[in-house]
Design goal:
Length: about 220
């Protein structure tokens, strides 16, 4: 017998089946897609992520500005000129290390000076003599003999003692070992400067490694 059951022709049923199958696959993909890839979640998350980045950038910029401002203020403080204490004058006691000094006077004998053997000492420029009383306030004997005793002119140039100082009549006092508590008066410090040099102060030292103390000469 012939089967009278009605079946749709293949060419008519295929399109409906394909459309239905595509819809099912799309629904399956949407159902199985991770939640963070779905459109309704993606846009809010993107906006939230963008806001977090902007807040972080602004916070970093503000912190950098405050650091820059602080650094600038510190630079201004560090670059401020140091204010030095006024130098003492002639006749004033000053101390450096284990020595106490009193400058008693300044002389300008000119280009020539009589030495300890009555020989003539000649300066390359002209001599400047600074007379100082020196007291040892330490515990060990020491001498004022030091090339670190410096004469300053008005332009800030420094002059070390002239080698001719060891040939003067007061040379012994300059190299004398002063005992603790002892004072040696009228220690002569001799300098050789250019003619007409305006000397303004002398920097006296206990030793080559001490800070030194300045005394005004004019």
């Amino acid at each position: 017998m012939e089967d009278h059951q009605t079946r749709p022709p293949p060419e008519l049923g295929a399109p409906d089946y394909a459309a239905t199958q595509a819809g099912l696959e799309k629904a399956h993909r949407n159902a199985t897609r991770p939640w963070f890839k779905r459109t309704r979640f993606f846009l809010p998350l993107s906006l939230m992520f963008f806001l977090v980045i902007m807040l972080a950038v602004n916070a970093t910029g503000n912190r950098g500005s405050s650091i820059s401002a602080t650094g600038g203020s510190q630079s201004k403080v560090e670059s401020a000129p140091k204010v030095e204490a006024p130098a003492a004058g002639i006749g004033t006691k000053v101390r450096d290390g284990n020595s106490e000094f009193v400058v008693t006077g300044v002389q300008r004998p000119g280009k020539r000076l009589v030495g300890k053997l009555d020989e003539t000492l000649t300066a390359q420029g002209e001599f400047v003599v600074v007379r100082v009383n020196v007291t040892n306030i330490g515990k060990d004997a020491q001498s004022p003999d030091c090339s670190c005793q410096l004469l300053h002119n008005d332009a800030g140039r420094e002059f070390e003692p002239s080698p001719a100082i060891l040939s003067t009549k007061a040379a012994l006092k300059f190299v004398w070992q002063i005992d603790p508590g002892e004072t040696v008066k009228d220690v002569l410090m001799l300098f050789d400067v250019a003619p007409g040099t305006k000397v303004v102060n002398i920097e006296l030292h206990d030793s080559p490694f001490s800070q030194g103390v300045q005394v005004k000469l004019s």
